[in-house]
Q: What sequence folds into this?
């Protein structure tokens, strides 16, 4: 078990213990998981958000077909990537692993069945965000069919269903907890810091040449 995963599991156990010990005999619990997730789907899968997704894909296409993706990859490989960035990317990579989905599912269960605390609500909302966003992520990954820089095949250009790297799952999982936290921070500087930290897992994928900028 890597140190990041061990620390995350300790946080989950602490949250559960804190929720049990710091609440009365009838603790406040979160809402049913399925109902809350269904509400998120109804609220977020709307015409307006599909238009926003289309705009994002258009922007990605501009990077992919203009040569900007390859130019950024080449510049980063030649001018930025070194042993220090490789070590940092290796560390950040852990924060985008799939087991975070299960961990945040644990937070959701704590919030629903034991007690609702600020940390459990943060984990639960992160879990809901992942559940709601995964269908879009998978559709974009496979539907656009972009390749990895290391593949040296068709690059970032869209070849539907040929590959599944047109979107980064690590970036998705790594960004969500920070963006959820930013929504609930009362001070603008704190929100800014959380948002600034959200893309760093994505940068690690660029450094490792696993994904293009788009």
A:
């Amino acid at each position: 078990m890597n140190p990041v995963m061990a620390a995350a599991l300790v946080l989950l156990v602490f949250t559960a213990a804190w929720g049990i010990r710091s609440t009365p005999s009838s603790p406040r619990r979160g809402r049913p998981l399925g109902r809350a997730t269904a509400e998120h789907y109804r609220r977020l899968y709307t015409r307006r958000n599909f238009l926003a997704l289309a705009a994002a894909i258009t922007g990605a296409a501009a990077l992919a077909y203009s040569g900007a993706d390859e130019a950024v990859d080449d510049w980063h490989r030649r001018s930025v990537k070194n042993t220090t960035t490789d070590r940092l990317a290796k560390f950040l990579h852990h924060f985008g692993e799939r087991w975070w989905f299960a961990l945040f599912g644990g937070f959701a269960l704590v919030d629903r069945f034991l007690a609702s605390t600020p940390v459990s609500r943060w984990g639960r909302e992160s879990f809901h965000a992942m559940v709601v966003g995964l269908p879009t992520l998978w559709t974009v990954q496979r539907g656009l069919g972009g390749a990895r820089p290391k593949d040296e095949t068709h690059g970032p250009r869209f070849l539907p269903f040929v590959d599944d790297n047109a979107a980064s799952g690590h970036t998705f999982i790594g960004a969500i907890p920070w963006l959820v936290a930013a929504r609930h921070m009362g001070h603008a500087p704190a929100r800014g810091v959380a948002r600034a930290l959200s893309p760093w897992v994505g940068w690690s994928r660029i450094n490792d040449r696993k994904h293009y900028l788009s």
Q: What stands out?
A: The chain has ten helices and no strands.
